[in-house]
Amino acid sequence: MDRRELLRSIAALTGCAFIGAERAFAAAADSGAYTPAQIALLDEIAETILPRTDTPGAKDAQVGAYIARYSTACYTPANLNVLRAGLGDIDTRSRKEYGVDFVRCSGEQKRKLLIDIDAEAKRRAQMLGENSEQPPHWFTLCKQLTLLSFFTSEAGTTRVSRYSPVPGPYKGVVAYKGETFWAW
Amino acid sequence: MRTIGRMTTTHYDAIVIGSGISGGWAAKELCERGLKTLVLERGRDVQHIKDYPTMSLRRWDFDLRGENPRAWNEVNPLISRAAGYDATTKHFFVKDEDHPYVQEKPFLWVRGYQVGGKSLIWGRACARWAPMDFTMPQRLGYGIAWPIGYDDVAPWYGHVENFIGVCGSQEGIETMPDGDYLPAYELNMVEQHLRRVLKDKFGRHYVSGRWAHVTEARDIHLKQGRGTCRNRNLCMRGCPFGGYFSSNASTLPWAAKTGNLTVRPHSVVHSVLYDETTKQASGVKVIDANTHEELVFNAKVIFVNASALNSTLILLNSKSQRFPNGLGNDNGLLGKYVGFHNYRAGMGAEIEGFKDAYYEVYKPAESIIPNFRNVHKQDADFVGGYVIFTGASRRLIDDNDTHGETIGAKYKEAISKPGKWTAYMYMQGETVPKASNHVRLSPDKKDRWGIPQLVVSVGYDDNDDRMVNDFLNEGRKMFEAAGFKNIKTNDSHQPPGLDIHEMGGVRMGADAKTSLLNAHNQMHLCKNVFVTDGACMTSTGSQSPSILYMALTARAANYAADQLKQHGEIV
Fold it and tell me: What predicted TM-score, i.e. pTM, was given to this entire model?
């Protein structure tokens, strides 16, 4: 299991090839650094996708800050803009549907909103196919980075999935009884 | 290991150019035979463990969890495509701007300039060539005869396998002979299933691969200070246990223990010097990488192990009155017949079932389907063979069992469990060495040490296309026969070079008119110069070549030592 396999899995999950540094769209204007409010919003979205249960959630793994760092360092300016424009859209949308910004919505309102947006993002990914020159849906980017960030964080790796830094002998066949996966 | 900036002497018994996988072996064998040996390495020193800065870091210790920023990759568009290149390993690869060359055709030349060379970052596959691999190119008319056969190499394969530690199973397969192996990695349930299907329905073999991993340390490995592989699967960062073979962990410290070894890093070799009187090479001209000072070192025997294309470059640049076109190059073939491995195509599939089976934990190895094409006679619309690397694993964060959940606690729980089994295959295909696939010196472009840049003119041909098609058809058939679903195939058309298996340029052969090296890897026309890295390859075969370089190097080094002992010089 390596990083490429992780990215393939994320791609299958979001219906869109993992978008990192590879895809280049025309450069767009620099929208500056993420604000603390935007990072808090990313945390809120990520926590809705991967909430704390009896194991850590997205906020425990500081997913918002990592999405900001990763997208700034690795995304093309165009994709970065798509993602950040989406953060504006989600507040517009939550105000329209629930009268408040996303972070002020109830847990169930947040969930319903993201389920709808996730479905829209999947439809767009399906429409665009694999080799599209068109920009992806912002939530595709957001969910990909949430999953990548969470399952490569210390909390996600060691307390949600299983982790063995120095495993020792390899066993090709073990019975599977419902445990979480071996992270890498 | 002595690493010196100011040399106490310039005269040695032997000089080895390069400290990678074959240079390390030359150093080990020559030093063990009592020869005072100077290893010249163009890059910096890398000491085992001490100079592996990322070996124990966790993924979250890296700013971007191991990925490089886009800005970094944009200024390194070439090297950032190399297998295994990321923020955890990039210090063992060159930077693009430091080492320019000319791509007459697209060719992505992957280099690792440091003590240990690419042995730190190699793929570690160690299957043997079959006897027929040495003879088929001539029999089917796509190459010249090797001056040696399997029986010449077999004892040296064993010699190398024992020392470096190679895992594998005894299988009795004609196209992939068994060796002296440590315990193999166990196949998982899906791999065992595929093994049965291939045997029953195709008469083909699916085998746990042969890898330079110490799966169970023998005394010889413990004596090197190496231990059993702990399967961390972080190999290319350098291994604190010496679990996989590298020059740094194995051959170089072993050579140093003899007291006969000197390693000089930051030593860019300009050329091999030819003595018109003795009609042998007298030494090597070096440019210090930092000071740009010119230095000359002398020796009775010179091993050229700078990596296939760099060894060729050095010999092309070794011009003298006798050899105006490069050392030993009367026939004009130096730099020609460059081959590589065709890695263009791969496929993936999904598997229903096997949900009650898993594995623990990480496996730094893959399975292999040995070549089944053109084994005794041509039975395909192409020449040469291919092997298939393959494996199966369970997907992470799979949406297969999320029952429609896409957001929230149930979704999180579902995707935290191992998902559907998936399997993959990718090909490693033999290519036909051709005079037109060549490298030469640029007439005008030089690197920062004043050495001519290499012009690389190497590409695919129709034979490669037909082999890709055959693999895509056969791979699909094998997956379908195993009941695998959603098979997706891909021909990446990736440029040659990314295979990191460049071979030829100074090929071996029985006839000095059609080759540069004889059966002992000596230059036909300059007997005290030996070339035993990828440059020497007469054909490419389909198996990973590194262990053959090691075996040929050990064989040639002992031959050279015998000569010096018997005659006081190479004859």
Answer: 0.94
Q: Are A41 and A135 in contact (CB under 8 A)?
A: no
Which three-class secondary structure state does DSSP give residue B208?
strand
The band of A4, judged by pLDDT with boundaries at 50, 70 and 90, is low
Joined tokens for residue B7: 């040399």
Q: Please list the helix, strand and coil fractions of chain B in percent, rounded to the nearest 5, in that order.
A: 25, 25, 50
Report the pLDDT averaged over residues A114-142. Answer: 91
Structure-derived torsion over alpha carbons of residues B207, B213, B217, B221, reported in degrees to the nearest 10? 130
Query: Position of tokens 């390693």?
Result: B263
Cβ–Cβ < 8 Å for A36, A30: no
Q: Which positions 56-95 of B are in contact with A (Cβ < 8 Å)?
A: 58-60, 63-71, 73, 86
Give yes or no for a contact between B228 and B243, defined as CB atoms under 8 angstroms apart.
yes
Name the closest residue on chain A to residue B239, using Cα atoms.
A166
Nearest-neighbour CA in chain B from A177: distance (Å): 7
Residue B413's pLDDT is 95
Token pair listed for B278: 């003795």
How close A101 comes to chain B (CA, Å)?
A: 19
Q: For the ranges A130-144, A166-180, B184-198, which has the lowest average pLDDT? A: A130-144
User: Prior bond to B361 cis, omega within 30?
Assistant: yes
Nearest to B125 by CA among B326, B341, B344: B341
Residue B457's DSSP bridge partners are B438
